[in-house]
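Researcher: Let's do a round of design. I'm pasting the structure tokens now; please hold your answer until I've finished.
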């Protein structure tokens, strides 16, 4: 059971990675090139059917040697023309997949780069900065292909790499900078947002109109940035897709994080106080670090109670008295109607339902003791076709739907909020997902909406098999997203009117190929306020 639980948790808040190439694609031909000279230094990119593309742009010094487990350092401006013709390396991670005999290591430590996609000849266009998901342990900006979004919606899109796993979130006093420990991955994202503010005008973007958006751990990262003092003023709007802000397991206090990080250091063969040993470790040992304790939804979570993130999102984001701590930016936020299905599927053995012990174990991993009791009482396995589907319903409601709704309702009293639920239960999925006895169909699974926004990508959804109705839904969703980035209001000509969320959280826009319409049953369907 532990192996399958860890496999499912490695996919938590992310996409599938079995489809990914471990090396960047070949560079575009120089014959179709475009040149810019931002303050960072001159760059040559490529042209792709009316779209200008610059990939693999470094935004920080390589976080290697003495800069391993150090806040990211700005890269000095360069003077020679730098090619930006292929994505940079992903940040180091271990890929896991069903049937895989041994782990596959992907990426390199010199990984802090970003990619820019802009309509050719762009001037002063809205900017959308994508933070990828992957449980803070996997993924890369180049796993997503925002060309359709940028070209069709006339926006500038930036995708970002940031440090992951132990390299991004180990928190040890010996590595402290002042009173701060950990959160290197969040600080990478923060520096990338600063880079965008300072440089994006040269690419045709409006540096005064930046929307940060992300899914899963990318969305959760934005929850942190709403509270991080150093992130204030770096983005003007935020789009949070399936990134629950208030789950207490998704960040950890300083003392608890130091304890688990100390265990991880010892698992790597170093005393937690021996900085020289830690920074000399081979990458493979770092990637094998084990923090100890029971499996959790995030192995190396962000840490609060430090200057970079002073307060706990779970403690602050639901309390009106604490709203001055939250960045006052408009929000577009939502989740999918069957978020939990893929996690339940990965935990289950092929050809059979999960056992009752597995049902309890993963309930605890997702929701702690309280979540386990709620699952046992309110999601009785014999009321569902399988135990896996009971678990899927519980995790959908308790981990995603209700925390998202509660946070959205709270912020609706302070700033414009637009809330959605993605309800297309027939999104074509990649070969990585395999229905079976435990989960015979996935419905609107976690990350099912990503392909609609980002087009053909490494997401679990197979955009190439979308029906005409699904393609039209995808186009309308991209339009809503881009309108929101443009003005802070997703509405526009030809679209179903999307009202601002009321403080009761009842007027949610439901997306499906059959009908996009406002619903008032979201909280009732997901048992918000009664169970969760």
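Researcher: That's everything. Go ahead.
Model: Designed sequence:
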């Amino acid at each position: 059971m532990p192996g399958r639980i860890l496999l499912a948790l490695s996919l938590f808040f992310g996409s599938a990675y079995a489809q990914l190439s471990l090396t960047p694609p070949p560079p575009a031909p120089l014959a179709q090139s475009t040149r810019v000279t931002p303050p960072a230094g001159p760059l040559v990119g490529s042209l792709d059917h009316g779209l200008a593309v610059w990939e693999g742009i470094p935004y920080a010094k390589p976080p290697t040697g003495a800069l391993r487990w150090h806040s990211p350092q700005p890269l000095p401006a360069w003077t020679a023309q730098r090619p930006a013709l292929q994505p940079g390396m992903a940040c180091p991670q271990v890929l896991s997949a069903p049937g895989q005999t041994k782990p596959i290591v992907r990426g390199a430590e010199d990984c802090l780069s970003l990619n820019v996609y802009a309509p050719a000849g762009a001037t002063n266009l809205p900017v959308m900065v994508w933070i990828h998901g992957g449980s803070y342990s996997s993924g890369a900006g180049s796993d997503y292909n925002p060309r359709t979004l940028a070209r069709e919606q006339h926006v500038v899109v930036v995708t970002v790499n940031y440090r992951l796993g132990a390299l991004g979130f180990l928190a040890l006093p010996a590595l402290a900078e002042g009173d701060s420990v950990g959160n290197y991955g969040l600080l990478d994202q923060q520096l990338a947002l600063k880079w965008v503010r300072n440089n994006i005008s040269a690419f045709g973007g409006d540096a005064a109109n930046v929307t940060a958006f992300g899914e899963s751990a990318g969305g959760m990262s934005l929850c942190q940035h709403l509270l991080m003092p150093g992130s204030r003023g770096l983005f003007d709007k935020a789009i949070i897709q399936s990134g629950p802000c208030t789950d207490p397991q998704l960040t950890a206090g300083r003392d608890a994080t130091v304890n688990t990080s100390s265990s991880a250091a010892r698992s790597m063969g170093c005393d937690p106080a021996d900085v020289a040993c830690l920074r000399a470790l081979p990458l493979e040992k770092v990637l094998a670090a084990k923090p100890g304790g029971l499996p959790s939804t995030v192995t190396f979570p962000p840490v609060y109670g430090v200057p970079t993130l002073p307060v706990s999102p779970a403690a602050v984001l639901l309390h009106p008295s604490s709203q001055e701590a939250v960045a006052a930016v408009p929000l577009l936020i939502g989740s999918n109607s069957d978020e939990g299905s893929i996690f339940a599927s990965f935990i289950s053995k092929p050809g059979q339902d999960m056992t009752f012990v597995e049902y309890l174990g993963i309930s605890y991993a997702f929701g702690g003791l309280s979540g386990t009791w709620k699952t046992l009482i309110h999601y009785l396995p014999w009321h569902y076709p399988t135990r896996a589907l009971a678990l899927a319903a519980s995790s959908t409601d308790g981990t995603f739907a209700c925390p998202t709704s509660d946070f959205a309702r709270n912020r609706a009293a302070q700033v414009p909020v637009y809330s959605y639920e993605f309800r297309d239960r027939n999104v074509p999925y990649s070969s990585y997902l395999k229905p079976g006895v435990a989960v015979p169909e996935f419905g609107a699974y976690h990350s099912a909406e990503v392909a609609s926004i980002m087009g053909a990508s490494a997401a679990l959804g197979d955009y190439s098999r979308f029906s005409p109705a699904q393609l039209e839904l995808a186009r309308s969703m991209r339009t809503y997203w881009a309108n929101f980035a443009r003005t802070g209001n997703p509405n526009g000509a030809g679209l179903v009117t999307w009202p601002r969320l009321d403080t009761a959280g009842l007027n949610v826009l439901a997306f499906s190929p059959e009908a996009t319409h406002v619903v008032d049953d979201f909280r009732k369907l997901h048992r918000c306020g009664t169970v969760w």
